[in-house]
Design goal:
Layout: E1 6-8, E2 16-23, E3 32-40, E4 43-50, H1 63-66, E5 82-83, E6 94-95, H2 98-116, E7 121-125, H3 131-145, E8 150-152, H4 159-169, E9 186-190, H5 194-197, H6 199-212, E10 215-219, E11 232-234, H7 241-254, H8 260-266, E12 267-268, H9 270-276, H10 283-290, H11 294-306, E13 310-314, H12 316-319, H13 324-338, E14 347-350, H14 357-362, E15 369-370, E16 374-375, H15 379-389, H16 402-410, E17 416-420, H17 424-427, H18 431-440, E18 443-448, E19 461-464, E20 473-476, E21 481-485, H19 498-508, H20 519-531, H21 559-563, E22 568-569, H22 580-583, E23 598-599, E24 618-623, E25 649-652, H23 654-659, E26 667-671, E27 676-683, E28 691-695, E29 728-734, E30 739-746, H24 754-758, E31 762-767, E32 771-778, H25 782-792, E33 800-807, E34 812-819, E35 822-830, H26 838-844, H27 852-860, E36 873-875, E37 880-881, H28 882-892, H29 897-904, H30 914-929
Parallel strand pairs: 7-8, 7-17, 9-10, 9-13, 10-11, 12-23, 13-14, 17-18, 18-19, 24-28, 25-27
Antiparallel strand pairs: 1-4, 2-3, 3-4, 5-6, 5-19, 15-16, 20-21, 21-22, 24-29, 25-28, 26-27, 26-29, 30-32, 30-35, 31-32, 33-34, 34-35, 36-37
Helix pairs in contact: 2-19, 3-19, 3-20, 4-13, 7-10, 7-13, 16-18, 28-30
């Protein structure tokens, strides 16, 4: 069972305990969660565990899910509608009521339509929305405002897979289930650090590997935690996935591994696909292009061809590319050629990044789609949808996709934009362009739970949305499983559901069709639309209208049935259908194209559109880390989630570090043609020469210069519009500073030190259990800075006690501030190697009282007993550090991660750290061998 983080929300004298089954709001695995709220005399406490009955996770949660209770406090929430932009940190917005806010939005939208036309309004929404919210906003924009200028941050993670599915299958769908990973004989993970990004599914794969010895292949330029347990790692050059899978296609044909009968009955287009991939007919040519050795290519091709049950999971490394659609289709082609689809344990499987990316696809969340898997450029589909909605208008052409949309905002083609549940100033490529666009946009509306995101500061109207724990509706995970996300907390302040705010604006603009009283009303309408003029599978021969996405069996649910809805996979033709009937589609070889056949898609291997050059000789690859989520507005609130990797970093190969003068642990400037960031260098041989890696999570609220989106190039896939987050030409160089420092400030006092922080050239902010930690660096001379920083510290009245130690000859200064025996703040300025152990300082803030020895130790900047540090945290659940694990491995001669768990508990809860523990065991074994 997972650990139970507890948070106290507000006072109550009632003693009640209530447990609610809901769904995790993070990745596309869609884990079931049990949330327990206990009312006590001391207040309301929330605890979170995995739902043992949910078929996506059977009680397992990753470290982010296990710490959900840490993220539901109200300290960062916007609790009422606000008017006016946050022009400075000291500017106070004007509070307004909902009626005033929605009336203003309606008025501004109507003015834009009257003056500039319907295409002057845009929406940018999110895979964090529930399906009901998603449906309402798409209905409003495409059926009533009459434009398709609504796109979603899911454009940034899975739109390439959507386009590939539609080209190959005729419809956007994932044909298999998580269960298939437990019955397969080979798993190919392409462009996916599954161990960190989808940990619960990864643990299911690892359990199957232990039980069945399935063969695991990881295709990734980096050696990630996912590679630790893999049988084969293919370190492909960035952007060369099409070459690899075109080469596999050619190999399969050359060696007679085609499923001739399946191809003849159920597919079209093989000849063209083979002709287009002829340049990869030679394995030598494939090896040269992909950077993978002939030996490894041979093994991979042989294993794929000789194994009947193969699951190929592909994710961001495939999708986030200027050739993302072709990459996905080249993978699907190999499955179609061998008939490895529609069978138990055999399928291509697109893994989505967000909790409701699939739900967004169901309701037409992308600018080039209509609701219910209808096509925006299909006249019959336009008519069908407008007839069902009885709407005054219907979008009849694709709208602007994410990158183009914000460029249109900057060029003033878009006059008003409404942004929901996302933070594009951080997450989009060329992110400073998004800042410029919003700065000059005539009217910006933002719906969010956080009042101070990088995007929210540009809102003319900021609306308080419901957060996880308060929302009620449904989400759909990567295996097409619809689950309830059920509210277990009261709405704070004046926060409202996103569908409600949309409905209020629609009504004020004079539109009918939005008289919803609950999410139930919207879901039933959504289900009815999915079945409207949509044949069932056994009727498709008698009609041209067929889509697998069909919720006919859910369209007559009562409100109580909806409230108690168990997780179910679509299509749901009837409520009592067998789960096996839909767990894997295409079993009968029936695809969604009009002729019911799948299409091979001819794909061409080309280099990434932005090539490296002398000025920018390295390739930047971006992605997620284990314990953070998107732009940290939620996970950044949890001290436990900041212990694994606390600072923004840049991973670089040792030889590149030597070449560019970069030292491990020092600051480095990463610069592209679009912007620059300052990150902490992490020298590692797990990345190929010529490449660097940086995480996507840090933003301007928690770091001075770590928003990697402003460095990423804005080139996109021509078909999907998905940006190239995996290949940006960059230059790196040391970021020299005169000194570095660390400042800890007890909770409740952190806002008082903002001037101190802003006075330094570089900083990052980190949440700990009882205090906020700031890492600092500056280029000013030590003697000119120390006194100025101390002057800016606000602890000036007589209740505070100051302890000081300063050695100007050694450029060293220690300051400790106490109040009534409690540690309030500590500031250490020195060369980096002279700074104290961060975990030790954080532990001092947990003490109720400080002894004389503790005071001396704090002033000295080191514990008096000088015990060895546990090292960087590996297991966040049980607080087990890297050095502790290594010492135990060596002392006990450990050979398996379960032995580490038995000794230290590490890895025995959520399992997110098991891959790293495997890596430490391998490293120790290598050391022994040497």
């Amino acid at each position: 069972m997972n650990s139970i983080p507890i948070v106290e929300l507000h006072s109550s004298t009632e003693n009640k305990i209530k447990t609610t089954q809901t769904t995790c709001p993070y990745c596309g695995v869609g884990c079931g969660v049990s949330a327990t709220v206990e009312q006590t005399a001391l207040g309301q406490k929330v605890s979170v565990t995995g739902d043992v009955n949910h078929p996506s996770n059977y009680g397992k949660l990753c470290i982010k899910g296990s710490n959900l209770a840490d993220t539901i406090g109200l300290e960062t929430r916007v609790l009422q509608p606000m008017l006016g932009r946050q022009t400075s940190p000291f500017h106070t917005r004007q509070a307004i009521d909902w009626n005033t806010a929605t009336a203003l939005i309606a008025e501004k939208f109507q003015q834009c339509i009257d003056k500039y036309g319907r295409e002057s309004i845009a929406f940018y929404v999110s895979g964090q929305l529930l399906t009901e919210d998603y449906y309402a906003v798409n209905k409003f924009v495409k059926g009533y405002l009459g434009t398709a200028n609504i796109d979603t941050n899911s454009r940034l993670c899975m739109s390439s897979a959507v386009a590939a599915h539609k080209r190959a299958f005729g419809e956007d769908l994932v044909p298999a289930s998580y269960e298939d990973f437990e019955h397969t004989d080979m798993v190919v993970l392409v462009g996916s650090n599954t161990a960190w990004c989808h940990p619960v599914l990864y643990q299911r794969i690892m359990k199957a590997k232990e039980e069945r010895n399935l063969f695991v292949v990881v295709i990734d330029p980096r050696f990630t935690s996912t590679c630790e347990a893999a049988d084969l790692h293919l370190p492909i050059l960035p952007g060369q996935d099409v070459a690899l899978f075109n080469g596999l296609l050619q190999y399969l044909v050359q060696n007679n591994h085609s499923d001739v009968d399946f191809i003849a009955k159920h597919t079209q287009g093989l000849a063209q696909a083979l002709e287009q991939s002829e340049t990869e007919a030679s394995m030598t040519a494939v090896a040269e292009r992909t950077g993978i050795s002939l030996e490894k290519l041979q093994l991979f091709f042989e294993k794929f061809s000789q194994t009947d049950k193969v699951m190929t999971l592909f994710s961001m490394g495939v999708n986030q590319s200027s050739r993302g659609v072709d990459k996905a289709n080249s993978i699907i082609n190999c499955h179609l050629l061998t008939g490895k689809i529609g069978k138990l344990g055999a399928a291509p499987f697109s893994m989505t990044g967000q909790p409701n990316a699939m739900g967004g696809r169901e309701v037409g969340g992308l600018a080039n789609m209509l609701a219910a898997h209808l096509d925006v450029d299909n006249t019959a589909h336009q008519t069908l949808l407008q007839e069902f909605w009885q709407s005054p208008f219907i979008a009849n052409k694709a709208g602007l996709k994410a990158v183009d949309l914000f460029q249109a905002v900057e060029s003033s083609k878009i006059k008003a934009i409404w942004i929901m549940a996302t933070n594009p100033v951080v997450s989009l490529p060329d992110a400073d362009q998004v800042k410029r666009a919003l700065e000059q946009c005539e009217f910006v509306v933002v719906s969010d739970i956080c009042k101070d995101t990088d995007t929210a500061i540009y809102a003319d109207v900021l609306l308080p949305a419901l957060g996880w724990g308060e929302k009620d509706g449904t989400v759909t995970n990567s295996e097409r499983r619809i689950s309830r996300q059920t509210a277990f907390l009261d709405a704070p302040g004046e926060a409202k559901a996103d569908w409600w705010s949309i409905a209020q604006v629609a009504k004020k603009m004079g539109y009918s069709g939005f008289d919803y009283s609950s999410s139930y009303d919207i879901f039933i309408e959504h289900a009815k639309l999915s079945a409207y003029q949509n044949a069932s599978l056994d009727q498709r021969d008698t009609t041209e209208s067929f889509r697998y996405f069909n919720l006919q069996g859910l369209s007559k649910l009562s409100a109580q049935d909806y409230a108690e809805l168990k997780p179910v996979q679509w299509p749901v033709w009837q409520l009592d259908q067998s789960a096996d009937a839909v767990s894997r589609l295409f079993a009968a070889g029936q695809f969604s194209h009009a002729d019911a056949k799948a299409k091979f898609v001819a794909t061409t291997a080309i280099d990434p559109l932005n090539k490296i050059c002398g000025e920018y000789p390295l390739v930047l690859n971006t992605g997620r880390i284990r314990d953070q989520w998107h732009t940290m507005s939620r996970t950044g609130l949890s001290a436990n989630l900041s212990t694994h990797i606390a600072e923004p970093f840049c991973e670089i190969h040792p030889q590149d570090a030597l070449k560019f003068g970069v030292k491990d642990g020092e600051l480095v400037e990463v610069k592209s043609n679009w912007g620059l960031c300052i990150l902490r260098a992490q020298v590692s041989s797990k990345i190929r020469r010529g490449q660097i890696f940086a995480p996507i999570h840090w933003n301007d609220q928690v770091a001075s210069d770590a928003r990697i989106g402003k460095v990423v190039n804005p080139v996109v896939d021509a078909l999907s519009g998905e940006p190239e987050f995996k290949h940006t030409p960059v230059f790196v160089q040391p970021f020299y500073t005169q000194w570095q420092g660390v400042l800890y400030v007890r909770d409740g006092f952190e806002q008082m030190v903002q001037n101190t922080i802003q006075n330094t050239v570089w900083w990052t902010k980190i949440k700990t259990a009882k205090a906020t930690r700031f890492e600092l660096a500056d280029r000013k001379k030590f003697r000119n800075t120390v006194q100025q920083l101390k002057t800016l510290l606000p602890f000036t009245d007589e209740s505070f006690e100051w302890l000081n130690l300063e050695d100007q000859t050694a450029d060293l200064s220690h300051t400790v501030v106490l109040q009534d025996g409690h540690l309030i703040a500590s500031l250490y300025i020195a060369q980096r190697s002279m700074l104290p152990d961060r975990d030790w300082i954080a532990g001092m803030f947990k003490r109720e009282r400080l002894s004389a020895m503790h005071r001396k130790a704090l002033l000295a900047g080191q514990p008096m007993n000088m015990t060895n540090s546990a090292g960087p945290l590996v297991c966040s659940c049980f607080k087990v550090g890297k050095n502790t694990i290594i010492e135990t491995i060596k002392e006990k001669n450990i050979t398996h991660e379960k032995q580490v768990t038995a000794c230290l508990k590490a890895g025995g809860n959520c399992g997110s750290c098991l891959s790293e523990i495997r890596g430490l065991i391998k490293a120790c074994q290598t050391e022994y061998a040497e």
